[in-house]
Write a structure and sequence with these properties.
With 300 residues, this protein is of the alpha/beta class. The protein has six helices and six strands.
Length: 300
């Protein structure tokens, strides 16, 4: 049985750990709120940009040609050379957040004839390299506070690789933020080539946009190509922010659970400590009483 000194030291150790987990909870909460505010502030611009791309296709979708667009692609067909942008955290202590993205990535890579991974986050980088996956080692980005500058840099690097033929399709595997006390859901989207049908207006919107006269300089394909590059920046930035928010939310949940476990452990240790002290006091009282009785008998 542990001594009172050992239990007291353990109580101090658990209390110090609880202070750390509580601080990590508060830090993650602050980071998540800031990321959501930044995302909301940039959202109107990219929504407007998507609308303008839809207008370009409304003018004459069959006449527009771009290397970033293709006809509808059946995602159930296996094979092909795929590039996968994988967004993980830089570190653990976030519950199942990282493992969920890793499982989704491995399942997506398994559907390809050849899959090259472009990793954002040190955790995913270490995992996939140690497990023998094909990782582009010249592509290095840590998962710090996501910014538009980071998204723009990632987009330029991936488009450069796409243009030189490193892969035929580009996917992004990330965690979609769901709010509340949820770690989010790992998912993937195809970035390029885009499905043209996603940008073709329907119904009244199509008639309204098609009746509007546009002039494109130097031509619609050039304007569209530049617009889609900016749109990709917004898409990747959204994936970064969603993943970052999900990571912080998952870490908050993990730290909250750690705080609860620490409180339960402290209560158990304090109860054990009090029992030992009570037993020790009882033992001392018994010994004093026995000594007093023995002394009294000797006097008699």
């Amino acid at each position: 049985m542990a001594s009172t000194k050992e239990i007291k030291n353990r109580i101090k150790s658990v209390g110090d750990t609880q202070k750390i987990t509580n601080a990590m909870y508060l830090i993650s909460s602050t980071k998540m709120r800031k990321a959501r505010r930044d995302a909301e502030s940039s959202k109107p611009y990219f929504q407007l940009l998507r609308r303008e791309i839809r207008r370009m296709f409304a003018v004459g979708p069959d006449l527009i040609r771009s290397r970033y667009y293709d006809e509808a692609v059946d995602e159930n067909v296996r094979g092909g050379r795929n590039g996968i942008l994988v967004i993980t955290a830089d570190k653990g202590l976030a519950g199942s957040y990282n493992q969920s993205v890793i499982r989704e990535t491995l399942a997506l890579a398994d559907r390809s004839d050849e899959a090259t991974l472009y990793i954002v986050g040190d955790y995913g980088w270490r995992f996939f390299r140690s497990h023998g996956s094909k990782v582009d080692e010249t592509f290095e980005h840590s998962m710090l506070q996501p910014t538009l500058a980071t998204a723009r840099e990632i987009t330029n690097e991936l488009l450069e690789r796409f243009d030189r033929g490193d892969f035929d399709r580009l996917y992004v595997c990330y965690t979609e933020y769901q709010g509340g006390m949820s770690a989010g859901e790992a998912t993937y989207d195809r970035l390029i080539p885009f499905d043209r049908d996603d940008f073709v207006p329907e119904g009244d919107e199509k008639d309204k946009d098609a009746s509007t006269v546009f002039e494109f300089e130097p031509d619609v394909e050039t304007v569209l190509e530049r617009s889609i590059q900016s749109y990709l920046v917004g898409y990747i930035y959204s994936a970064l922010v969603n993943s970052y928010s999900s990571e912080q939310n998952a870490r908050m949940m993990a730290m909250d659970a750690a705080n609860d476990n620490a409180s339960e452990l402290l209560a158990s240790l304090e109860l054990e400590y009090n029992h030992l002290r009570q037993n020790a006091i009882t033992q001392e009282i018994t010994e004093i009483s026995s000594g007093a009785r023995s002394l009294k008998k000797k006097k008699k």
